[in-house]
Write a structure and sequence with these properties.
This protein is α/β, with parallel strands linked by helices and 323 residues long. It has 14 helices and 8 strands.
């Protein structure tokens, strides 16, 4: 039984690079905003109804992107330390109405990103898991609240992602049992492919509550049925090539237009609802032999292999030093 069934509709976070939308967007719109945007504010823009919150008034849901993609693209490493990131998250958690979760400082595994860092998929996975473990262990030094950082799976092939599941298990992180959201990285630029659908179906059959990063309409149509949450700001990319449609005289394109973004969000939610209705029906992936049918068995084998080799004290220290 997949955890992403019809009783749990996909929750969509509208990606934005405008911190002011915390105040100006409709309250029922959940937002996905990068730490690199929010860190510029001494005090976050107040949510709607502030300071007149009353019982029964809905609160805005927000998720935080760590800015990992930008930092690795620009610097080929993280310039923001785990401590700096956690201090910022503690502040956001205090100032936002609802901070649902935050992404870790994970390492993407696209081939062109590997070319930038000069590292392997396995090393990027190791650093991703190490960072998550480090962030969760350090969090109590910054806040008494529950740690908002969610685990993220990184890889390129189906077996890569299963190996990443096993790596988390090796470090005592039980994804299916202990977390409401598990992110899946390195997918947004190839989401219309058969392989991506196979990856998400495989992971969903492990009872993982999946979040898809940067999911566009084509991706939702192909694997939206396997997601619990997703985010995207593809509207802004499309808006760069779209002349002003909203009647505003203040911008020449729709790249920063909230009206355009909200209309795009409406289309996303329609496609997501349609994808959920297709649960239980065969898709194109089912026409081909798929490793998804043996996903649990392969993951169990990977976990057993990982536990068979216990890392030494020195290797544990190296794990964190490399992050």
């Amino acid at each position: 039984m997949l955890i992403c069934d019809q009783t749990r509709d996909l929750h969509f976070y509208l990606g934005t690079h405008r911190g002011s939308w915390l105040t100006t967007a409709p309250i029922d719109v959940s937002l996905f905003i990068s730490h690199r945007v929010l860190r510029k504010y001494k005090r976050l823009p107040p949510p709607p109804h502030w300071p007149f919150w009353r019982s029964g008034i809905p609160l805005r849901h927000v998720a935080i992107d760590s800015g990992a993609f930008t930092e690795l693209s620009l610097y080929h490493e993280f310039v923001t330390t785990p401590e700096e990131y956690l201090a910022a998250l503690a502040r956001y958690d205090d100032e936002l109405t609802v901070l649902d979760w935050a992404a870790p400082q994970d390492w993407m595994c696209e081939p062109w990103m590997l070319a930038k860092t000069g590292l392997t998929v396995a090393e990027h996975q190791r650093r991703t898991v190490a960072n998550f473990v480090q962030l969760t262990e350090l969090w109590p030094e910054f806040s008494d609240a529950e740690c908002p950082v969610m685990p993220v799976l990184q890889g390129w092939t189906v077996d890569d992602y299963l190996a990443c599941v096993a790596l988390y298990e090796e470090h005592g992180v039980h994804l299916a049992q202990d977390f409401e959201i598990v992110g899946v990285g390195s997918v947004c630029r190839r989401q219309a492919t058969m392989e991506i659908g196979d990856i998400f179906r495989t992971l969903a059959q492990l009872d993982l509550p999946l979040h898809g990063f940067g999911v566009k309409l084509a991706g939702l149509r192909r694997y939206g049925r396997y997601l619990v949450t997703s985010d995207s700001m593809a509207w802004s990319y499309a808006g760069r090539r779209t002349p002003t449609q909203c009647g505003s005289t203040r911008h020449k394109s729709e790249a920063n237009c909230q009206t355009f973004a909200l209309a795009w969000r409406d289309r996303v939610e329609e496609v997501a609802a349609e994808a959920k209705r297709e649960i239980g029906q065969p898709d194109q992936i089912d026409l081909f032999p798929a490793p998804a049918r043996s996903a649990k068995e392969r993951t169990r084998q990977l976990v057993q292999q990982a536990k068979a080799v216990q890392p030494s004290r020195e290797s544990q220290l190296d794990l964190f030093a490399a992050a």
